[in-house]
Amino acid sequence: MRLKRNLSFQLTPHMFHNCLKNPCFYQRYWVTIENERKNVKRLRCLPYFYIIGFPKCGTTDLWERLIRHPQIVAKHKKESHYIDDKRFIKQWTFEDYLKYFSYTSNEIAKQCEAQQINTDAKCNIITGEATANTAAVNDLWNLLPENKGCTEPRFTNPDYLYSINPDMKLIALIRDPVERLWSDYHYLAKYFKYNTSREDFHENAVKAIDAYKDCLKYFSPRGCAYNESIGSIQMRLRMALYDIHITDWLRVFPRQQLLIIRTEEYRNNTAGVLRRVFKHLNIDYPSTMFFEQMLMMPKENVNHVVVDMANTTRQMLYAFYKDSYTNVRTILQDPQFVLHMPRG
């Protein structure tokens, strides 16, 4: 495993098992069996791929379809939140993160052992994770010693994820930022128990945009994108400043390791996007039966919002996000990334 920097969060590199496609290694530990202490080994595995975000862009739906693939094992929940906050708030250690994949690791060991009895070929079973906040939620960046005294972070989530596995395959889904924000506002109300209305949404949007503009008087756009005082849980405005977040990921990971998917394309051409994902992950195309099952699954985690935002709010938000979204098109050199302003 290659490591780029000498950091406080740098992990001891592991020699991953050569016969497994998924990054796994053996760890020895002591266990008592029939009153006798024995030194045994167990397989520990990390994600081969990671759906890093963005929230309310279809990450849950993509995850639920992918884990139906015969070569993907997932005996763990979709999101660990280890990278974005648990290592700070709950003080998860790297060992805690490994334990999160324990059942999955056992299943990979079981399937690969059965497969390799009859063949010497590399075992192609893989696993992944899909914590959608990972792409953009870096609000605790100031807790890293390397960021002490900085007005914007020197190191963020991609740096930590790189230290775990620099060869990790990454996937990000990007949605129209205004629609993402509206969906996010209603979705989080279920958990944080705030009342929703067009008026409340507009008021929160105005406050967040004004705070961001005021921040720009003193700090860079990147510094303001990582300023947790801007916005609120009802208004995660900074999350869809895609150009800043994607630039930070590409600063650390090679472009070929990051697959960017537009949510709108995923909705309209799920089969075509899944084929792109299979190619990105370097896994086999499933049989017709499995592929049809993946496509026929009901949409997951869909947030049905009957009421639309006020047109004045929509116009204001499109104006706010326009430059950022245009920058994404330039960064990725992809003409499909066009933010269509509403009429009227």
What does it look like?
- Helix content is 43%, strand content 11%.
- α9 packs parallel to α13 (311-332).
- The chain is α/β, with parallel strands linked by helices.
- It has helices at residues 59-66, 82-89, 94-100, 102-118, 157-164, 177-192, 198-215, 221-225, 242-252, 263-268, 270-281, 288-296, 311-332; strands at 24-33, 36-45, 49-53, 128-129, 169-174, 258-262.
- The chain has 13 helices and six strands.
- It has a four-stranded parallel beta sheet, sandwiched between helices. Strands 1-2 form a two-stranded antiparallel sheet.
- A hairpin with a 2-residue loop joins β1 and β2.
Overall residue-averaged pLDDT value: 91
Proportion of residues in extended strands? 5-15%
Quaternary status: single chain
Helix content: 40-55%
Tell me the distance between the termini.
54 Å
Helix/strand-derived category reads alpha/beta
- Please describe the biggest sheet, giving its number of strands, its sense, and whether it closes into a barrel: 4 strands, parallel
> What is the tally of beta strands?
6
Q: What is the element string, with H for helices and E for strands? A: EEEHHHHEHEHHHHEHHHH
Could you tell me the radius of gyration in angstroms? 22 Å
* Poorly predicted parts: none
Strand order across the largest sheet:
4-3-5-6
Coarse morphology: globular
Count of runs of 4 or more consecutive helical residues:
13
